[in-house]
Amino acid sequence: MCGIFACISKDNKTAVKVINGLKKLEYRGYDSWGISYKNANGINVVKEVGKISAFDPEEANFADSNVAIAHTRWATHGGVEVRNAHPHLNKENTIAVVHNGIIENYIELKNELIKKGYEFKSDTDTEVIVQMIDSYMDFGFEKAIEKTVARFEGRFAIVVIDKNADEIIACRRGSPLILGVGKEETFIASDIPAFLSHTNVVNYIDDDEMVKITSSERHFYSLRTGDEIQKRDIQIEWNIEDAEKGDFTHFMLKEIFDQKETVQRAVDQSDEEIMAVAEKIKKSKGVFFVGCGTAGKVAKAGEYFFAHVAKRHVNFAPASEFPLFHNFLLPETLVFAISQSGETADVLEALEVAQKAGSTVFSLTNVVGSSIARKSDISLFIKAGPEKAVASTKAATSQLALLLLIAYAVAGKLEEGKKLLLEISSNVNDLLNPRFVAHTESVAKKIAHKDNLFIIGKGVNYPMAEESAIKIQEVSQIHAEGFAGGELKHGPIAMIEEGTPCLVLVGDDESKQEIVSNAIELKSRGAMIIGIASEKHDCFDEFIRVPESGVASCITNLIPIQLLSFYLGVERGLDPDMPRNLAKSVTVK
Ligand code: M6R
Q1: What are the backbone angles phi and psi of residue 432, rounded to the nearest 5°?
Q2: Domains in the chain: ranges and CATH
């Protein structure tokens, strides 16, 4: 949700470098983009509405500069217009700011500044930041920033330059910012891929910290105490290829194919660590699984894994709803957060609520050093590599696999779980063959013109039916809804008419017969039944065969759903990597 990238270097081609790095963050927002770079003439600004990927910095003839900050926007406050694009500058064009997050009390601050005579050109909360810094500049650049952020309510990551200071200053609370340590250059970004072609050595900036950087120095301070903080250099394991599309047309397709390896990587964890998590779950009084969107559907699947495999009751709550359950939180309660990015604001808030009650917090994320991982008492990582398409694919199957393994560990059957998941990983590898992909594409072509689509599942495939709806909605913009099969006859069946496509996710467990009966009920109302199952049934008009996978059928069933969503998007002329109105990492509430 908005990407920030900044660089201060000994070389004077930072503008081009920053634009190229910003392109790697386009998945975080693609409404507009902008850059400010500094040279002897002051601060220069270029802003455009649309995607940064369409812009060629080599043709832009940027003047030489060794300091640049840039931003790709997912609009929250103020429409998609050039005047609302970042960076925002003060009246004299001497200070420029980029921002990710929301300043919740910006209206109050804006009114205060207007009374002092400040004029605003945009509708954003970000412009308040730069004007407020300007209003405190008598205290000096650094103090002005400190005084400004002390006034904020909400979450923010900001990066600021001053025409008269040979440094970049950045601060964060709740929104991500990572520092990259280059050779004679220093970077600050919302995510690592922005600078991965220059360095893989990072410093994590924590909440309520400020950092001042030059090309060769970095100083971290606590915004609470003003004390200087020492940071450890961390070498991260991602390589550039992991963060690129390679020969694939889209990140989404590449990430679907990455699942040939990622399911196995997710469950390749140390036995000690998994058993430690399992023991803590067993000893806890109440477990909540929380997550948003796809990760939320995985968390909901966790309820079924624990019911069937571990024979333990756990609760699921969408992270945004979780704070309403605070009365049930005890110090012995365990809250288990699932998040690909590790930066989702609703999940962070859920964890804050849990920690306030003294509960223990576990997390399962993909990004080492992410805010959620750092906030957790125990953090596990799915090791899926960067997931850049907005639609979550490989992260979801990896989360499912690791959660299922934990359920087996709680049941005292870790080895059985490992064996099953090894088989599942090989099933996924086998599924992703050209014939299967072409068949799924052909099914997508048959239904791409439809306006409505329904998906049903039972047991662990019920949350997967809901996940399928998310995938199809975001990537193809077809109206899709996922239900528990048994729920249809209580209302939604009224929507079925001749030819309405209905996807049926059949599990390889005791739910099989019932979900097929539900499919037959739909067919008798005229629905076109697309069965995703390990066995063909007469009621299927189209059949997508997946290998028999027992309790892990939810993992194998998701593969054709992801491919279908991708090809539905392509057939409908959409960019599957960048769905309308969405951003990869939702760092606002
Ligand atoms: O990074 P997270 O896993 O916390 O993100 C949660 C959701 O925003 C995310 O899963 C979203 O629903 C995806 N776009 C779905 O494909």
Answers
A1: -80, 55
A2: 3-239 (3.60.20.10), 245-432 (3.40.50.10490), 433-577 (3.40.50.10490)
